[in-house]
Amino acid sequence: MKQSLFRSLFPTPRFLQMPSVGLDISDKSVRFLGFVEGKGGFILGNYAEKKINPGIVESGKIKDERKIKEVLVTLKSEHKLDFVRVALPEEQAYLFLMNVPLVKKRQLRESILFQLEEHVPIKATDAVFDYEIINERADSFVVQVSVIPIQLVESYARIFTESGLRPVSFEVEAQAIARAVIPRGDRGTYMVVDFGQTRTGISIVSEGSVLFTSTIDVGGAMLTEAIAKEFGVDAREAEKIKRERGLGQEKENKKIFSAIISTVAIFRDEINKHFIYWHTHKETDQYIRRPIEKLILCGGDSNLHGLIDYLARSLRMKVELANVWGNVSTPLQYIPEIAFRDSLTYATAVGLALADQDYD
To answer: What is the helix, strand, coil percentage profile of the chain, to 5?
Structure first.
């Protein structure tokens, strides 16, 4: 995986770099996680999650800078944070493949910039972009381009620096997740699904690069709301029922299954739509798409009881839960203290923190 996207905004020399933590802001919480060097490898260091109130962040956009800075200042004070690697929301990013006529590599950025407005609905002067060469042909490059509105990047940079935190890098969320859940050096093609509370991120990783991302407005909170409505309970009790019972099809679970299956079916259909798109859509760059080998689930609601079996049967493909620790160079027989269920919510933060180890 790429070490960090938009790192050019914060080009820290290697000898000045200090251990950092990966920090992930979502619409409902802020999470961070870092590693420390132990005997024989890296072990889990500091980590925490802090819930935030609705309306502070919406679809990844910071709506209330004062409130989010209060959260960051609290985390910095309580956990002695300093250097951070930050995830940028993929729903605000544009990621696509581009065919660029063969030029000298030092001229490639300029060539991409010239064509940028043909691919994204923002002016080139209002965007920050980075790229990765996917394939080099006799007459052209196939490049993967990632674009973020500069206003969003600046707002993130501002809230961190004004909170006393020092950003080492910014990176699109999907790329950080891929660094955590795709085995290092694996060149296969996988669909990665981050099933969160308010939305789901879908990305496709092939030959070590994230080539496609999409965000859908389906999340675990919708399941909780459906259960609360069906049983006349509050959100906390509904969340407990969801986690304990899930999609189990036992006779005694029939009422819960009926309450949430329509939302889960929408979730499945969206995944299937992107699966079909990947295999049938012909890009103008003529890039050969390899078949998706399996679906990898992460995120807070990915371990919903019965979800993997349901998706595997209905999508007719291999589905598995992510192992977010797979690329951490840990001592033998080391087991992180975070429960497996909870580790799935830290996939983005783990991927960001792993960038420190990429330098070794």
So the answer is: 40, 30, 30
